[in-house]
Every structure is written in C-alpha cells, then in structure tokens.
Write a structure and sequence with these properties.
The complex is a heterodimer of chains A (284) and B (218).
Chain A (H helix, E strand, L loop, with lengths): L12 H6 L1 H11 L8 H8 L1 E6 L2 E2 L3 E4 L2 E3 L1 H13 L2 E6 L2 H9 L5 E7 L2 H4 L2 E3 L4 E2 L2 E6 L15 E5 L3 H11 L6 E5 L2 H10 L4 E5 H10 L4 E8 L4 E7 L3 H16 L2 H10 L15
Parallel strand pairs in A: 1-5, 1-6, 10-11, 10-12
Antiparallel strand pairs in A: 2-3, 3-4, 6-14, 7-14, 8-14, 9-12, 9-13
Helix pairs in contact in A: 4-10, 4-11
Chain B lengths: L2 H6 L1 H34 L3 H16 L2 H11 L9 H26 L3 H9 L4 H31 L11 H12 L2 H35 L1
Helix pairs in contact in B: 2-3, 2-5, 2-8, 2-9, 3-5, 4-5, 5-7, 6-7, 7-9, 8-9
Classes of the chains: A alpha/beta (284), B mainly alpha (218).
Chain lengths: 284, 218
C-alpha cells in the first residue's frame, strides 16, 4: 500500500478557503451540540442517504442534461444498495459543499477530495475511491511537448491550491528553463485557456485529464507518464459520523473485493487501479 | 463553435430558464409587497416606522445577495432552522429586492409636489381619494422604468441561488460546459436565454408605461 504524501492540498482548496470563515463560524456554533450524532441510524430509519457534490468534475460527477452520472454516482449507488437505502443527490457549487456538510444539509460529500492532516482534524475521510496522481494535458496539435519535461520555458495552468499544482511547481523548479505557471479558480477555465492557446498545458489528476482528452480528442492530448507522488481521492463526512463512515468504508471494501469497483473504473477510466483498503495516514 | 452543443442541451437549458424565471418572478412579486410596505413605512408620520423602514433598507441593501443566501440556507441551520433550498432562494431574492423596490417607490412619491395633496385637501378630497386618484397614478408612472430595471437586475442576480443547490440557468450552463468541454457554446446558449427573458420583461415594461401614460392623458 502506498502512503499519501500530499504536498499541497486538494483540488478546489482555494475556493474552500474562501468560505473558511463561514465554515469556521458554523463549526464554532456546532461545537456546542452533543457529539456522536447517529446519522447512520437516521439514514436507515428514513430509508434515504442524502449526498452532495459539484456535478462539474467529469468523469467523477457529471450532469448530463439534468441526469447525474459518473464514477461517484455509480459508486454511491452500489454503496447505498449495500446499506439497503435509496440515495438522493444534491448539486452544489464547491464553495457550498463543505459548509453544507457542517450545517447538516446532507449526510455525505461524494466530491473527490484529497486527504491532508489539516483536513483530518475537521472531516472524516472514506477509504480512497480513485487515484489522484498529477498529470499534464496539451493541445492535440502541439508537437513540441512529448514528455512532462518538455514544458520547460512554456506556460502551464492548473487549479489554484490543488496538490497537483503544488507538485507541478516542485517539478518545474528542477527544469532547465522556468515554467510560467498560471493559477485558475477551476479546471474548466484552465482547459478553456489551453484550447484558446493562452497556455501550453493543463495540470490535473490523471483520471480527470484522461477523460477530458478522450472526450475532446480533436482538441486535447494526454502527456505521459504521470509524475509526482501517488495521491488518492476520498469522500468526506462529518467528524462525529464515525458509524456512517465505517459503514460506507465496509461497503466500498466489499465492492472492491467483488469486482464492482473494477467494472466502474473500466467504464469511466478505461483501466482499473489498485486502491488502499484503509484510510491512508497523510504524510503532511 | 459547434451550435449542436446548444441544440443538444436545448431542453436542459429551457428547463433551467424556467427555474430562473419562476424563482425570479416569485422573488420580485414578494419583494414588491415588501417594497410597498417598507416604502410606506419610510413615508409614514410615525418616527419609529420611518426608522424601522430605514433600518430594513440599510441592512438588506448593504448585505450582498450571495452572503444573504448563504446566511439563510446554512447559517440558520445552525440554530435548528432548516430552510428548504427553494424557500431560501426566493426569500433571499425577495428580501434583497424589497429594499431596492422600497427606495424606488419612496423616490417616486417624494418627487410629487406637496402642493398637489394640499390643493386636493383644500378642494375637499378625502385622504384615501387623494392617495388613490392623485398621488398613486403619478407615482406608479414614475416608478415603472426603474422597477423594470430592478426586475431585470434581479433576474440576472438569480444566478446566485445556485449556492443553495438550485439548478438555474447559469449553473446549468456551467454543467454543460464542464460535461462537453465546450464552454463557449454552453455560455452563449445560457446568455441567449437570459437575453430572451429580459427582452420580454423590457417589452412588458414598455406596455405598462404606455398604459399608464394613456391613463394620465385622459
């Protein structure tokens, strides 16, 4: 099993920080309440698990003409089946997801989030649901980039505050020519600027980029191999909902054992990936 | 540019435009009632009513709509007030636009010369009649253009209600952009829907203005 060594934070960390004040205010007020809520009991008695994510993160979360699709949808459906409950899905902007979790507007955040020590103090993480290792994507017609090192002297964009962007900075520092790193609020803007020619490559996790390049093969191509440290995406729950997270983790591990997870991975990533069976201890 | 992207998502966009329109109209209508009440309070002879109205305007015009929405939906939940997303969205829009509409209405009454009401009273018009037949028709006519302006602003500002999880037009355009990796087409599609709705609103405003002007000429 690989250990997680997240240099920076996850994707969307920057946006999350923007709302940190709201979340902090919520946390302070929430501290007065009785800990160890029985969310799992509530879910079972109402027969419904309420989850939230931002449906703008293909191939994990997609809103296809109003229908929720993607890796997270298929995984959570299988998990809910194990728990014997139905699922309802909320589509929230990322800025609202973690505050909404703390305000108990839903039970579980199924947006893929990377584990860090700082975050483990505030949230409970599930076992990993996907690989989050950093990779690069270029324009399909750009012959000047064949391997990651070829970005020396070029402009590369990525989402502000993500662990992938931090890994890019560390990687770029070792190259012979400086890399012009542009930080975006979200990955979709980085892709748009890549297509428009304002930057020469986009950094993100390998599963996200592989899917983007496959969807728009006319515009984008993957630059392999992936680089940096192995990192993983997990789901996030409230810290006092240990019973819920334990049940979700047990279901995820069972689904990995019976091949359900591999089938979902094959469908959306085009390949399978090994994932740790326990919540990894973050190195930072 | 591939127009097929917009055509493919046309049903999704239409549905989202319906949500945007419904939430905005509900917010504008409730906001008008709030605006009328607050505007009346600010024109009242009672000092405490004037102060109350003034405080309302200061608070809800001073707090950004985004913060107001987050407050209603997430912060009140901390006190056990679990407001449904739809109520939070319409309520936030109504509270905010109510403050602006009250100022538009107050302004419209304030420009009417005081002498008109005094002359009417001298001619023996009862108080309610002065209000109904002399002041209100003029004030409405004056306030229609700025009110339509405010309605259009609220319709566009309704894009913010996505923070409470409502799939309105801007949100859906973003969903389409991220799914298709074609942001230009998605936003052009969304933009065209906003333009169409707002042209209709402006048209209705023009009709209202003509009607009220005719009433004045009679």
């Amino acid at each position: 099993m690989k250990t997680i060594k997240t240099i920076g934070m996850t994707r969307r960390e920057a946006l999350k920080r923007g709302l940190a004040a709201t979340a902090a205010a919520g946390g302070l007020l929430g501290a007065g309440r009785v800990a160890w809520a029985d969310t799992l009991g509530d879910i079972k008695s109402r027969g419904e698990l309420v989850v939230a994510t931002e449906m703008q993160f293909p191939p994990f979360d997609i809103s296809d003409n109003g229908t929720y699709k993607g890796v997270d949808r298929e995984l959570i459906d299988a998990v809910a089946k194990e728990l014997g409950v139905k699922v309802s899905y909320l589509d929230l902007p990322w800025t609202s997801v973690l505050p909404g979790l703390e305000a108990k507007k839903f039970d579980l955040c199924i947006a893929p989030v990377t584990i860090t020590k700082e975050r483990m103090k505030r949230y409970a993480f599930s076992v990993p649901i996907a690989d989050a290792t950093a990779a690069l994507m270029k324009r399909a017609d750009d012959k000047s980039i064949a391997k990651p090192e070829d970005i020396a002297g070029k402009a590369v964009g990525g989402q502000k505050g993500t662990s992938q962007l931090e890994q890019l900075k560390a990687f770029a520092a070792k190259l012979p020519k400086p890399v012009d790193i542009k930080e975006y609020v979200d990955n979709n803007q980085s892709y748009a600027d890549l297509a428009a020619g304002r930057i020469d490559a986009s950094i993100n996790s390998l599963p996200n980029l592989a899917y983007a390049a496959a969807q728009r093969a006319d515009a984008f191509a993957l630059v392999l191999p992936a680089f940096g440290q192995a990192t993983y995406f997990s789901w996030v729950g409230r810290l006092d909902d240990k019973t819920l997270l334990d049940a979700v983790n047990a279901a995820l591990v069972k689904l990995e054992g019976d091949g359900t997870v591999a089938t979902i991975q094959k469908k959306w990533f085009g390949q399978t990936m090994d994932l740790p069976k326990t919540v990894p201890e973050p190195a930072i | 540019m591939r127009p097929q992207v917009i055509l493919h998502a046309f049903g999704y966009l239409t549905q989202a435009a319906g949500t945007t329109l419904a939430i905005s109209l509900a917010g504008i209508a409730i906001g008008f009632l709030i605006g009328a009440a607050v505007g009346a309070a600010r024109l009242s002879r009672q000092v405490w009513l004037r102060r109350l109205g003034g405080a309302y305007v200061s608070v809800f015009r001073g707090v950004p709509l985004l913060v107001l929405l987050l407050f209603i939906y997430y912060f009140l939940a901390e006190f056990g007030l679990d407001i449904p997303a739809l109520v939070a969205a319409i309520g936030g829009l109504a509270l905010s636009t109510g403050a602006y509409q009250s100022e538009i209405l107050r302004g419209a009454f304030a420009v009417l010369p005081r002498g008109q009401a005094e002359a009417a009273a001298a001619l023996g018009f009862p108080g309610l009649e002065i209000w109904r037949r002399i002041l209100l028709p003029q004030a409405l006519r004056i306030s229609v253009p700025p009110l339509i302006n405010e309605f259009i602003l609220i319709l566009k500002a309704s894009s913010l209600v996505s923070v409470v999880g409502i799939a309105e037009l801007t949100r859906v355009s973003m969903n389409i952009a991220s799914m298709t990796y074609r942001p230009l087409e998605a936003y052009v599609g969304g933009g065209l829907f906003y333009l169409a709705i707002n042209l209709c609103l402006a048209g209705l405003g023009a009709i209202a203005e003509r009607r009220l002007a005719a009433g004045g000429a009679r």
